[in-house]
């Protein structure tokens, strides 16, 4: 890092020393930008780095709701509106006990660059609550969502801030929040994405993040003279992203050999496809069971309290669970076991030590802000359909998504090469995304 970049990061660490995930994300971006700010001093002169690392607005509020026994419950709610230079704030709502302002700042900061890479007019934001929907009845979830939206509606809108789903927020939660928003403002408008198909949702939206991650990984493999055909692919997670990543990998001729949840991992050498994939979908989406039940059903190994990374050999790894799930030691195991590409289907699932291992061993490594941009890209396509009062076919949406992911890969590769780090997708993604946002900030003058 040069003096300007390191100075911005040092100030950030002093100011927000307790927000570890946010600082990790900021450091990863800022250290990529040294060649950009050295080549073009206009960014330093306008204080762009100091401005881009601070949210434009953070809203926090309490969410009172009543459980089925009539007890009053209180949760915390947040919306971090990080940057609106290229469009309205766009990013998911997360319901999980781990949610706090620092986690949402990390996610919102990443969202700025992820959205920029899609080439769609969307700024970066993120929100959520420490509410846990697991074990709650539909009525409890509805009352919670209605209470949340009674405050959140003041801060969002189709041209201001357009939330979506994330961990703990699926179609049920989006529906309850949208219904309360419509009730309060007396307007039917595209204020949320991930809506039901009957009332403004987009086809392929559930599949989009997983499909998009595979499309990006496919381009990485093609750049190195190969593809998914015949490849052993290791996935983590077993939720929406992992499920549809597995489906697309199967379609492209790969074999998905692992999945996991918060309790442990399975290894299925026969591949999680066909009837087995359908069983997994029912297990996780309808019965909401644990991955161990899959192991019991098909007689495959189950590893309690372990991620899959060091458990067997694989050609490609797609971490699709949560942040910092691949440690430096895990990365070493993947390299030792022959991995030829790693693509992040989740948000920042690799620790800095793991990223260093992959890059140091010349393993093509796709960062989450590029690889998992397919979800928000299709949310952007949903916004377009809402604005035009149209519904595109599944084939049209998937074709547009594929084109977006191919273009993101090309942008990352070209930016990395332009700034002297050919093949480094981390630098390429950060540089390509930053320049679009930073130049827009310059055009609009000293606001926020």
UniProtKB/TrEMBL annotation:
<dbReference type="InterPro" id="IPR050724">
    <property type="entry name" value="Glu_Leu_Phe_Val_DH"/>
</dbReference>
<dbReference type="InterPro" id="IPR046346">
    <property type="entry name" value="Aminoacid_DH-like_N_sf"/>
</dbReference>
<dbReference type="Pfam" id="PF02812">
    <property type="entry name" value="ELFV_dehydrog_N"/>
</dbReference>
<feature type="active site" description="Proton donor">
    <location>
        <position position="126"/>
    </location>
</feature>
<dbReference type="GO" id="GO:0004354">
    <property type="term" value="F:glutamate dehydrogenase (NADP+) activity"/>
</dbReference>
<feature type="binding site">
    <location>
        <position position="111"/>
    </location>
    <ligand>
        <name>substrate</name>
    </ligand>
</feature>
<feature type="domain" description="Glutamate/phenylalanine/leucine/valine/L-tryptophan dehydrogenase C-terminal">
    <location>
        <begin position="202"/>
        <end position="445"/>
    </location>
</feature>
<dbReference type="InterPro" id="IPR006097">
    <property type="entry name" value="Glu/Leu/Phe/Val/Trp_DH_dimer"/>
</dbReference>
<feature type="binding site">
    <location>
        <position position="379"/>
    </location>
    <ligand>
        <name>substrate</name>
    </ligand>
</feature>
<feature type="binding site">
    <location>
        <position position="165"/>
    </location>
    <ligand>
        <name>substrate</name>
    </ligand>
</feature>
<dbReference type="InterPro" id="IPR036291">
    <property type="entry name" value="NAD(P)-bd_dom_sf"/>
</dbReference>
<feature type="binding site">
    <location>
        <position position="90"/>
    </location>
    <ligand>
        <name>substrate</name>
    </ligand>
</feature>
<comment type="similarity">
    <text>Belongs to the Glu/Leu/Phe/Val dehydrogenases family.</text>
</comment>
<comment type="subunit">
    <text>Homohexamer.</text>
</comment>
<dbReference type="GO" id="GO:0006537">
    <property type="term" value="P:glutamate biosynthetic process"/>
</dbReference>
<dbReference type="InterPro" id="IPR033524">
    <property type="entry name" value="Glu/Leu/Phe/Val_DH_AS"/>
</dbReference>
<dbReference type="GO" id="GO:0005829">
    <property type="term" value="C:cytosol"/>
</dbReference>
<dbReference type="InterPro" id="IPR006095">
    <property type="entry name" value="Glu/Leu/Phe/Val/Trp_DH"/>
</dbReference>
<feature type="binding site">
    <location>
        <position position="209"/>
    </location>
    <ligand>
        <name>NAD(+)</name>
    </ligand>
</feature>
<dbReference type="InterPro" id="IPR006096">
    <property type="entry name" value="Glu/Leu/Phe/Val/Trp_DH_C"/>
</dbReference>
<dbReference type="Pfam" id="PF00208">
    <property type="entry name" value="ELFV_dehydrog"/>
</dbReference>
<keyword id="KW-0520">NAD</keyword>
<keyword id="KW-0547">Nucleotide-binding</keyword>
<dbReference type="GO" id="GO:0000166">
    <property type="term" value="F:nucleotide binding"/>
</dbReference>
<feature type="binding site">
    <location>
        <position position="240"/>
    </location>
    <ligand>
        <name>NAD(+)</name>
    </ligand>
</feature>
<feature type="binding site">
    <location>
        <position position="114"/>
    </location>
    <ligand>
        <name>substrate</name>
    </ligand>
</feature>
<protein>
    <recommendedName>
        <fullName>Glutamate dehydrogenase</fullName>
    </recommendedName>
</protein>
<feature type="site" description="Important for catalysis">
    <location>
        <position position="166"/>
    </location>
</feature>
<keyword id="KW-0560">Oxidoreductase</keyword>
<dbReference type="InterPro" id="IPR033922">
    <property type="entry name" value="NAD_bind_Glu_DH"/>
</dbReference>
<dbReference type="InterPro" id="IPR014362">
    <property type="entry name" value="Glu_DH"/>
</dbReference>
